[in-house]
Amino acid sequence: MAEKSDFDPIAAWQGFVSQWERQINDMSASLSANETFAGSMNQFAKLSFAARKNVEDHLDRLARSAQLPTQAQISEVLDRLDRIEQKIDALALAVVQTKTAAAPSTAQPRRTRQPPDSAT
User: Fold this and answer.
1) Sequence spans of domains, the chain
2) In this structure, are residues 41 and 35 in contact, taking their beta carbons and an 8 Å threshold?
3) How is 14-57 classified by DSSP, letter by letter?
4) Would you tell me the crossing angle of helices 35-65 and 9-33 to the nearest 10 degrees?
5) Mean pLDDT for the chain?
6) What pLDDT is attached to residue 34?
7) Structure pTM?
């Protein structure tokens, strides 16, 4: 039989990941301690927010010029459609109940006819 080796791939992977995390944390700590980096990140966040707002404004203008409905209008239409469907379901149920109430009974008709006299 072959001898077992002492190599543990899981432990090696865990060691690699923890060393990598330590290096990343050290690098990010040194970067965030730098005031110019913090200021540039703050400015980048402001520019990113302004760009996003600008894109949203342009998309809104484009949607209005194409006469597309807004999300609020679509949700209002969907709510109205739900109410209409509920009313249709109620009417269909009322029609079914009316038909079953007006249906003729399945009782046998009365037999009142008498057989002809056979005494001739």
Assistant:
1) 18-68, 69-101
2) no
3) HHHHHHHHHHHHHHHHHHHH-HHHHHHHHHHHHHHHHHHHHHHH
4) 90
5) 87
6) 84
7) 0.39
